[in-house]
Amino acid sequence: MKEIIMKRRNFLKGILATSFTVISTASVLTPLTALAKIGAKNRDDWLTTGSHFGAFKIKRKNGVIDQVKPFDLDKYPTDMINGVKGLVYNPSRIRYPMVRLDFLLKGHKSDTTQRGDFRFVRVTWDQALTLFKQSLDEIQTNYGPSGLHAGQTGWRATGQLHSSTSHMQRAVGMHGNFVKKIGDYSTGAGQTILPYVLGSTEVYAQGTSWPLILDNAKTIVLWANDPYKNLQVGWNAETHESFEYLAQLKEKVKQGKIRVISIDPVASKTQDYLGCEKIYVNPQTDVALMLAIAYELYSNNLHDKEFIEGYSLGFDRFVPYLTGEEDGIPKTVEWAEKITAVPAEVIKELAKTMVAGRTQLLMGWCIQRQQHGEQPYWMAAVLATMIGQIGLPGGGISYGHHYSSIGVPSSGAAAPGAFPRNVDEGQKPIFDNNDFKGASSTIPVARWIDAILAPGKVIDANGAKVTYPDIKMMIFSGNNPWNHHQDRNRMKKAFHKLECVVSIDINWTATCRFSDIVLPACTTMERNDIDIYGSYANRGLLAMQKMVEPLFDSLSDYEIFTRFAKVLGKEKEYTRGMTEFDWLTKLYNDCKKANDGKFVMPEFEQFWQDGYVHFGEGKPWTRHADFREDPEINPLGTPSGMIEIHSRKIERYQYDDCKGHPTWMEKSERSHGGPGSEKHPIWMQSCHPDKRLHSQMCESKEYRSTYTVQDREPVYLNPADAKHRGIKNGDVVRVFNDRGQLLAGAVVSDNFPEGVIRIHEGAWYGPVGDDGSTTGGAEIGALCSYGDPNTLTQDIGSSKLAQACSAYTCLVDYEKFTGKLPQVTSFSGPLEIGA
Amino acid sequence: MKWLMNLWQTLNKPAKYLTLGSISLTAFVMGIIFWGGFNTALEATNTEEFCISCHSMESKPYQELQQTVHWSNHSGVRATCPDCHVPHNWGRKIARKMEASSDVWGWVFNTVNTSEKFEDKRLEMASREWARFERDDSLACKNCHNYDSMKWESMSKLAQKQMKRAAEKDQSCVDCHKGIAHTLPDMGTARAPQLIAEVGTGPSKFTNEQYYFSALTKPLFFSAKGDVEAGTLNVATKVKILESKENRVKVSISGWRKQIGAGRVIYFDFGINMLTAQLSKEAAKTEGVINGFEEKEDEMTGLKWQRVETTLWTDAEYLITEQQPLWDYARTTFRSSCSVCHTQPDEAHFDANTWPGMFQGMIAFVNMDQDTQALVQKYLQQHSSTFVKKEH
Amino acid sequence: MKQQIPDMTKEIAEENQARAIVYNFLSSLFAKEVNTDLVEQLTSKEGQRFLSSLSLEAKLAAPIDDINTKLTQLNSEESLLELAADFCGLFLVDGRTSVSLYAGQYIANEPSDVISGNNKADKIQIFGELHQQMTEFLTNSNMQIHSDFPEPADHLAVILAYLGHLCLSTSVDNQINFIETYLMTWLADFTQQVKKHDAGHFYAAVAELTFEWVKLEVND
Fold first, then answer.
1. If you measure CA to CA, which chain B residue comes closest to A591?
2. A407 in B contact zone (CB under 8 Å)
3. How far is CA A679 from CA A46, A487, A675, in A?
4. Does residue B60 share a domain with residue B124?
5. d(CA C85, CA C99)
6. Is residue B6 part of a domain?
7. pLDDT tier, A509 (very low <50, low <70, confident <90, very high otherwise)
8. Which residues on chain A are in Cβ contact (under 8 Å) with C176?
9. Nearest Cα to B301, choosing from B256, B347, B346?
10. pLDDT tens digits along C22-38
11. Which residues of A touch C11 (CB under 8 A)?
12. Mean pLDDT, to the nearest integer, of A127-142?
């Protein structure tokens, strides 16, 4: 024993004798500063913040978020609040600025086939931002603005100051010009067709107030619409007031005062909640059903001729198609039954019901996210015109009551502005070049992968010709196209063609893994901001108070791009010489000024201390009432100012896939006997998730585990179909078609009819090698280990009109997965090829 | 009187050491003491004499009131100070009197004891009153004027449209009706103040046969004097001035109209839905108001259009000499307001007839008053692909 | 740092200083990537003497050997970047070939929560209980994590540096107690994982060196 001690003593003495001290690395520890001593302990009271999932109060413990509870005014919080903590303290956080090693070594000549599966190194912010600028310089010098696409689309984290796209585009815009997008993935077809028909995008417009609908409607038709699921999240801090009205509706349904008829291939969450009537329709056949209702109304003389005459144009051009005079096919209930599987008698009864009393049509967005997605929205407007109740409370048509508190009476207060997205007037970018070399500077949002793969190609879009630019570099900030775009394997091919991809995000999304420069942004909990709460209701202003300092080396969007602007030598122009708090104060005071004399708002300091300002209740309002009252003085925004049942303007485009009036057209893929169903008989519905906002919150591990099956995204299966394939609840299933393959966890449910499965979009992409082993994933055809449905969807435009995303035109098949179950890689950082 | 001295001292301290409540309370108490002591019932404070004895109004607001319809009219009903300025419910009444005691403060400490000082403070004082009217939903007005008992038929079309919109929202009266009992403070304009600050209110003298542009949506009249409205002139619209008479100018408006309804709406050009003017039904029917010329069918809609000219009167304000400042203001507003949620499309991405649909479908989140909305929409149409040929 | 050691003999004080040097050295290797300065230092005469003095312990000889071999190969910018990529892939991201440096990812509240290397999907949230615990230790010792090192307090580099501090400020019993509770509970698992995933073998050697060193500390 003594010997050992002596030996050890000598050994240690020997070490000391080398007089070696580690000087290259300063110690990770340092004496406690007085500030930190109190800082760790102070303000452990409840603070306020908000998100798409809700507004909430947060309590900290030793500077770490401890408890989260709903904001006092949110009476119907969603359980997604349980995932909030997991968004912040997530092992998938991007901790430091990082650059893909091969890109660091070879720059724009790097091996891009490695993307999605290779080595990164940590760099400092200065290095990363300098590299970022050098890449932009190279692109602008070699290709001009058409080589750069920074026109991202999509959501972000809430907050008017730190909104990710605004910062990125303002800063990048100070360097040079770039390709932008038009439209979005959610409502691409709808927002393009409806201005021709109803004179507004409708999808994002305020709708008739719920109290008026509840008081006046006798029948409410929910067409492919699941508000009870989708109203959980909002564009701003959502406070869920719509749920109060859904509760009242449920009561009225129970009392038999309002009939709610839900037309949907699946039994939706709303159907289950309201206990309403259900009509099953074959997927993608809604137009045929609508046409048959119209035929029934017309042939029985039940349509409102006076309204059609006084408020619309082109009915006479539509009738020959309806009756079959134009194409030899009368759109009868019997004709529709064959396509839609809705019994002729049910269609007849539905038609009668619609004109028997006040009928409110509430359309969901799903049916326009398919090939020819313009048609169901147009035809629904025609149907509403024939019913003749547009502009009446509780009648007419809405395309937004499932979205962001639309229909909750708005307070009428002015909302705060935001940090400017555009470069200030009069300033010139460093590369002041607007020469897109004959290519378009704006492309339809969902066609960018097409453009990368086929630069120079000319396509039709909304009456114009679009020439694809030759895109060499992409920038994404708070943006995950590896969720929202279709067909992963096609995306991989496109990304191999890009010289440089920059991604700024909170966690390692698939988009980050396919990037060259990856920069860490902090979450909303780690910065100060300001937001509306109540979304469209604009119920009040919310202080988004910083809970914790930015984790690791992450920074707020404001700080990231202020630093980037400094690299560009334009810091002052970027910030206008203002700090984060200067901006917050300005946004607040501008809002206070706009509300002066109408809404009482305290001084900023008081507001910040209180956490919110409440604007109070709003007054009920009816959409299109002014048009109905005087269509001459209050015309619609259509070419004629009237509802356009037939559009001469669209007719003149001479598109084969979007004609002068709404038309039933067969799809490239359709289940239930349609094209392609012999090979892949199952229609996959990839609707908005129930437990996320798109892909946001999928990474929140603890919360995710409340709904995953064997760590996989659930795939909802019909019992008979599952049994036929030897699959039971809890199995892992391989879903596949010719475009890709994924693994998902089986949830067998009667809510899903034969020939239909559902996988919620927003499930993170996590490719693994074809054999399911732990290596690989970058290759074309890789298996998604978690269950991202866009591994399987089609990347085609809805039509020559909208060129919108068509994710819902998608056939698949599935089988029980019997191979070695691979680890889920969706929530990983970059993966190494050889490991 | 020692306590009174103490109170004086308290009042003489800089306000930042006192809460607003304590200033108001003591000032209110002081006011009553100066007036005549505590033994007066609250109701006694609700008379004109009481108000003007302290509220320094004898020379200014009180005299202004006497010039208005609220003082003298054919029905013989008169609105006195407390009718408008003291709330009709007790809780608010007390609160209001506390608030008013800051006016006493003003009198005691000479902040508004001269005409100049009063004018300097007028906007501040008026703003406080307007804010209070808003808070009370203009109850004071509605005691006599009621939306429900308004005779809509006898209003002009424009008034009807605006009143109905206001009634729907139960809007506060002073939102629009400011400066009706006292002189309006110098505040530029109540409508679109930022826009007017940018483009100005226009020249005071006009040259006949010259073109001018409307800086706001303006009422049109049949004659130089009468108040019968003939319609509205849309913002940023080019008109030719034919003659000036006192506060009005006679303008010539030309454009095209659709042959639907009464043909009351005049647009910028054939087949282009850019609003120029909307006339009342009466104006449209009145012989000689609208002069029609050639007709053409618009292939895009199948509607017949007719070229028209009309000559009407409008107030000689908010008519400016150049259109560009309007477009500059609209461009800035469009770029900042429409990029809060998404990147704003290029102006030339859509044509003139598509923009109204795109714009109207997106304004739910945008804070623009109606004049600015109309201006931005017109800006977008005027700079759309219809007029600006550009690759996109 | 206070170095009040009145009741210790000079010898023990020297030993503790030596141990503190080793802990700080190991801490620095896990704190960040190897840079040119460190390579120069370690390949210098003094550095080599230091490493060879460590390799006098038989169990440390093999990893020191591996480290030395790697050091001689670090002769270019690119080779350093490759090593930095190893560090990044192992320690700065979370994935199928990464290894967490956070003790809290290994030690959880309940025994059933002990996380095995093969089941990384079950990882718990970072900045958890152990971060809180370590923060408290640091605060009580009048220390905090350097602002240039924005990591949770249960990071291995922090634990090792804190041990370096303990060597100079508390009784050996306390030190051993701390090592057994906050290092020995997970270091074996950690080392095994690094060895499995580190294709470059440098960090496998560093992890082994650390593990063997700490074992010596508690065993001897």
1. B367
2. no
3. 57, 19, 9
4. yes
5. 14
6. no
7. very high
8. none
9. B256
10. 999 999 999 999 999 99
11. 9
12. 98
Which of B299, B320, B341 finishes a domain? B320
Q: Touch between chain B and chain C (3+ CB pairs, < 8 Å)?
A: no
* Architecture of the domain spanning C8-219: Up-down Bundle (1.20)
C-alpha dihedral over C159, C160, C162, C166, to 10 degrees? 130
- Strands across the sheet containing A47-51: A47-51, A54-61, A64-70
DSSP H stretches of helix in chain B = 2-12, 20-35, 48-54, 61-65, 81-85, 90-108, 115-135, 139-142, 157-168, 193-199, 281-285, 324-337, 355-360, 370-382
Tokens of B20: 């607003």
Closest approach of A815 to chain B, Cα-based (Å):
41
**Token pair recorded at residue A203:** 């999808």
First to last CA, chain C: 27
Interface test with B, best of A196, A462, A640, A653 (most B CBs within 10 A): A640
Does some domain include residue B192? no
Whether B194 maps to a domain, the answer reads no
In Å, how far is C76's CA from the nearest CA of chain A? 12
The interface predicted TM-score of the complex, written ipTM, equals: 0.93
Number of structural domains found in chain B:
3
CA dihedral angle for residue B115, residue B120, residue B126, residue B129, rounded to 10 degrees: -90
Q: Are residues B296 and B334 in the same domain?
A: no
Q: B310 with B329, same domain?
A: no
What are C66-115's pLDDT values in tens digits?
Answer: 999 999 999 999 999 999 999 999 999 998 889 999 999 998 644 333 44
Number of Cβ within a 10 Å radius of residue A565: 21
| Average pLDDT of chain A, as a whole number | 94
Helices C45-54, A2-17: crossing angle, 10 deg rounding: 170
Q: Hey, are the CB atoms on B392 and A635 less than 8 Å from each other?
A: no
B302–A648 CB contact, under 8 Å: yes
How many DSSP H helices and E strands does chain A contain? 29, 32
Nearest CA in chain A to C21: A21
Q: Does one domain contain both B55 and B113?
A: yes
The boundaries of the domain holding residue B218 are: 201-320
DSSP E strand boundaries for A88-128: 98-100, 120-122
Q: Which residues contact A538 (CB under 8 A, 6 or more apart)?
A: A410, A411, A412, A413, A415, A532, A615
Q: Which of A8, A53, A212 lies closest to A621 in space, CA to CA?
A: A212
Q: Which of C53, C74, C54 is nearest to C209 (CA)?
A: C54
Whether B57 and B85 map to the same domain: the answer is: yes
Cβ–Cβ below 8 Å for B361 and A637: yes
Residue C13: band (very low, low, confident or very high) from pLDDT cuts 50, 70, 90: confident
Closest CB to B365 among A415, A421, A644: A415
CA C200-C203-C206 angle, 5° bins: 140
- Whats the size of chain A, residue-wise? 835
pLDDT in tens, A648-686: 999 999 999 999 999 999 999 999 999 999 999 999 999
Give the long-range contacts of residues A727-730, CB within 8 A, separation 24 or more.
A727/A814, A727/A815, A727/A816
pLDDT, position B338: 82
Q: Which of A158, A167, A200, A626 is the best residue to mutate to test the B interface, defined by the most B CB atoms within 10 Å of its own CB?
A: A200
Neighbors of chain C with 3 or more C-beta pairs under 8 Å: A
SS3 B359: helix
CA-CA-CA-CA dihedral for B36, B39, B42, B45, to nearest 10: -20
Average pLDDT of the residues in A246-262 = 98
Domain range summary for chain C, segments of one domain joined by +: 8-219
Residue C36 Cα, gap to closest chain A Cα (Å): 9
Residues B110 and B153 in one domain: yes
Q: Do B167 and B57 reside in the same domain of the chain?
A: yes
C/A Cβ contact: 3+ pairs below 8 Å:
yes
Q: Which of B265, B287, B320 is the last residue of a domain?
A: B320
Whether B296 and B378 map to the same domain: the answer is: no
The CATH number covering residue B349 comes to 1.10.760
